[in-house]
Amino acid sequence: MWSWFQLRFQLSISVPSASNKRVNNFSFISISRSKFKRLDFRGFYIMALQKDDEFVCAATVRIHGHKVAEMPLVATAFKYRRQGMCQVLVHELEKMLSQLHVERLVLPAISERSELWQSLFGFSEMSSAERLELLRFPFLGFQGTTMFQKILSKIIPRMEMRGKFAGAS
């Protein structure tokens, strides 16, 4: 059982590390511990979208109670890009978080992806006041990124998303 888990974990982290050249060693995020909150990576989950035995898209997620969840890393395997697979993954994550009564989902985005997160995924840039409100949570952030959020109250399943998801499995 443990070796099966390790194999699945390694497969799920291969998608982000292969498709995001800025991250040299992805595995540290899920296994590192620290007495400093900003360096403590415990509590992360990996959500992955699969097609047969192949990982299509993966994201790291950490839930901080009902107030907020963070998704600091998300990536799609190269051959599945521009097919809406990341949208499927994020939409399913939003539905799950809504069912858990999580109020909002936050993520750090590089400037080159800001427009994408706003127009395609419905995120908005967090104001200084909103960031201060969530300061007590140890979010994983990266230098040169901007924090975005999406309020998750009443995420309604969209038929086109369910259709794409059914075709991806």
Secondary structure elements and their pairing?
Elements: H1 2-19, H2 28-31, E1 45-51, E2 54-64, E3 68-76, H3 85-99, E4 104-110, H4 111-119, E5 124-125, H5 128-133, E6 145-151, H6 159-168
Parallel strand pairs: 3-4
Antiparallel strand pairs: 1-2, 2-3, 4-6, 5-6
Helix pairs in contact: 3-6
Percent of residues in helical segments?
25-40%
* Helix vs. strand class: alpha+beta
Beta-strand segment tally: 6
What are the low-pLDDT stretches, counting only 5+ consecutive residues below 50?
1-11, 15-31, 159-169
Strand-and-helix sequence, N→C?
HHEEEHEHEHEH
The CATH topology is given as: Aminopeptidase
**How many domains would you count in the coordinates?**
1
What is the 3D shape?
globular
Q: Would you identify the CATH architecture?
A: 3-Layer(aba) Sandwich
What is the first-to-last residue Cα distance? 24 Å
Estimated share of beta-strand residues: 25-35%
CATH class: Alpha Beta
Q: Helical element count?
A: 6
What is the arithmetic mean of pLDDT? 75
Largest sheet: 6 strands, mixed
CATH superfamily: Gcn5-related N-acetyltransferase (GNAT)
Based on CA atoms alone, the radius of gyration comes out at: 16 Å
Across the major sheet, the strand order is: 1-2-3-4-6-5
GO molecular function: transcription corepressor activity
Pfam families: IDM1_C
Protein name: Increased DNA methylation 1
Domain Increased DNA methylation 1 C-terminal: 31-150
